[in-house]
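Quick note —
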Amino acid sequence: MSKVIYDISMSLDGFITAAGQTAAEPLGVGGDQLHEWAFGGSDTDRSFLNDGAAGCGAVISGRKNYDDAVPFWGPDGPMQRTPVFVLTHEAPASSPEGGVYTFVTDGPEEALAQARRAAGDKDVYVMGGAQTGAAFLEAGLLDEIGIHLVPVLLGSGTPLFDSLGHHVRLESLDAVQTPSATHLRYRVAG
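Predicted structure written out below.
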């Protein structure tokens, strides 16, 4: 059976964006450092990105992440025509023509049900920011968490697990260190 994986880059001090987010800099001032491993890192870094993309059948994103990223993603989404299910309270008035985006207003369970149908036997990646990740974790919908821990201290920004309301046990599955990031993978144990 396919897995549901929350996958995200994070600074050593726990932030997934830097402070000072704008439309031009959705990751905040200097926040683009969080994704350098994916675009300019080592062969090992690129294999994490490529392996994830190859195993991904659908993506779930939060609305803020969608709003911030769609100017860069365009109609094809973050993984070249892989369906993206955007968890939102209200669908936007417009979306890129011919885009891969479906807007889901009925909560994480419905977003996951639609994403699983689209993914078939491939994995579903939750790539939708801190609130979306916490919502899926709180609802018990995640099988794994993948964190690409980047050796930078941002000092402020969007904290990853700030809104989590309880303890969650994790089982370490893998840890691979490169100069650009330490790639951590955990099974959600409860």
